[in-house]
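Q: Please design a sequence for this.
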């Protein structure tokens, strides 16, 4: 993996022009990510860039909403393990973009790991094991799944409007998921994902999932592979070590924008030492 920095000083202008967007796409194709540095940027410009790269903008309701297409990245101060964004939901974004309005004085680097490189480092046994489908199981509190459904279901816009009928429709619309309503209003949620998957942008096989990632906003999921075996904490730690060997860090500067192929490249972060840093996220589907 390379450092894919597109610098305004090298392109000769500080506007994010169509040429810069074309360069961004070329980096996404080659390495799965790009960092735009030194460009004139504000929240609207960031929103626009995300909208240019995606045809649909998605939203994670577990996070604080900020502007039209963006959400503030807000998950405590500890390090966050590598994951693809919304990797444990039925609709995972193809592209994730981050905008740093205020860089940290120290620490708080975003980690970037090319899942294609991880897959290539696997031995034959690991390649076969992780090429199976995987069931992700967890319990979601009522407030959370209703907010999620209100956003994703085309017929409704507010959590109060959600009924059991909408769950049935949503289940039918997106294959690979199952819901069981509990008496306390929460649902037991089961989703089938492919932990190794082709990129939506460039194909190829990548270890791209949320197994190593956080579950700040949700109950920690259980993972079960198609052959009936579960993914143990020991196995997860070994994977974490291997992924770390394919990881680079973004040392943010004010105004930086990172764009990531979320179907190939996982991201996370080191511990936050400077709580004043500000990072926003935008994401969507191509
Ligand atoms: Fe994330």
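A: Design:
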């Amino acid at each position: 993996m390379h450092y894919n920095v597109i610098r305004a000083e090298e392109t000769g202008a500080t506007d994010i022009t169509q040429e810069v967007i074309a360069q961004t796409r070329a980096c996404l194709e080659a390495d799965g990510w790009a960092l735009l540095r030194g460009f004139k940027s504000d929240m609207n410009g960031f929103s626009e860039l995300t909208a240019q790269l995606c045809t649909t903008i998605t939203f994670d309701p577990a996070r604080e909403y900020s502007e039209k297409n963006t959400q503030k990245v807000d998950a405590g101060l500890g390090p966050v393990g590598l994951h693809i964004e919304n990797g444990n939901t039925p609709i995972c974004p193809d592209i994730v973009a981050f905008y740093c309005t205020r860089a940290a004085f120290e620490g708080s680097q975003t980690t970037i790991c090319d899942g294609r490189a991880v897959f290539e480092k696997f031995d034959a046994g690991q390649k076969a094991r992780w090429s199976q489908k995987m069931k992700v199981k967890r319990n979601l509190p009522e407030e959370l799944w209703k907010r999620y459904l209100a956003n994703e279901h085309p017929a409704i816009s507010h959590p109060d409007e959600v009924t059991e009928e909408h769950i049935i429709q949503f289940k039918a619309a997106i294959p690979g998921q199952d819901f069981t309503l509990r008496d306390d209003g929460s649902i037991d949620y089961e989703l089938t994902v492919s932990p190794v998957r082709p990129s939506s942008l460039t194909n190829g096989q990548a270890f791209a999932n949320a197994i190593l990632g956080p579950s700040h906003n949700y109950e920690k999921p259980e993972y079960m592979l198609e052959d009936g075996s579960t993914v143990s904490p020991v196995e997860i730690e070994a994977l974490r070590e291997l992924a770390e060997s394919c990881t680079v860090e973004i040392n943010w500067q004010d105004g930086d924008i990172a764009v990531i192929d979320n179907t190939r490249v996982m991201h996370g972060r080191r511990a936050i030492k400077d709580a004043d840093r500000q990072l926003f996220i935008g994401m969507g589907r191509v």
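Q: Thanks. Anything notable?
A: Confidence is low (pLDDT under 50) at residues 60-65. The chain is about 25% helix and 30% strand.
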